Amino acid sequence: MSGPTRPTQERIRMLLICGFAPLMFVAVILLDGALQPGYDPINRWGSELSNGDWGWVQIANFVVTGLLTMAFAVGVRRALGSGPGSRAIPIFTGVLGGCLIVAGVFVTDPNPGFPPGVQPPAESSLHGWIHNLNLFPAWAALTAAILMTAYRGIARKEGLTWILITIMAGILTPLTLYVAAQRFSFDTLSGDGHGLWQRISQAIGFGWYALYSARLLRDSGRTSPPGIADQRSTAPRS
Question: Is residue 231 a part of any domain in this protein?
């Protein structure tokens, strides 16, 4: 059986390059947070950057990253072919992308102190509630995609180092976000260090996606069509 045509390979590779978008999302948050007057990245959520005169930067960051992550999900589906997680991993990745878009469309409410001079609403708005609740399916999908990739790696014996990195990312990503949530009071809408722990969680989870993208790009040059290598590796030998 002949391999995929060059245009098909190039399309897959372009989709897989989109897997670096989540890491760029973190870079934009760090840069935007460092430049915003009155913003403390250690003690404020990244979503709070969606408010104020420059809020459009973070809103665009959410939406563009979400779209590119969904494109990456398509590339992952085509690159994985068959085998364990070949459907679940791109589905969870696509859900994450959709949740990022939702986070950009439904802007969080401002918290006390940022933007400077802006008074928080007495009660959470509908879009604020949607934004806050959206965090849970987003990080659940992210964690599920990572752990399903670890399962695929174990089933296919893809290498101990990669498997351990993926398992650790799947554990630390939700754990560090949990620490961030514990350091924030929803009664006073303030906290101590939750912004730092959120960024650690983002760096681990979204940084893992960059590693995964690089790994898939490395493997995308094979001559067999997606799924053929899986079939060969599982076929009985005479």
Answer: no
Task: Tell me whether residue 62 is in a domain.
Answer: yes
Number of compact structural domains in the chain: 1
- Output the six-digit token pair for 229: 């290598």
**Burial class of 122 by CB neighbour count within 10 A (0 to 12, 13 to 18, 19+):** exposed
Per residue in 7-64, pLDDT (tens digit) is 688 999 999 999 999 999 999 999 999 999 999 999 999 999 999 999 999 999 999 9
Both tokens of residue 15? Answer: 């989709």
- Would residue 1 count as lying in a domain? no
pTM of the model: 0.88
**DSSP 8-state code for residue 159:** -
In this structure, are residues 107 and 129 in contact, taking their beta carbons and an 8 Å threshold? no
Render pLDDT for 129-159 as a digit per residue (tens, 0 to 9): 999 999 999 999 999 999 999 999 999 999 9
Report how far apart the first and last C-alpha atoms of the chain are (Å, whole number).
Answer: 20
Neighbour tally for 97: CB within 10 Å: 25
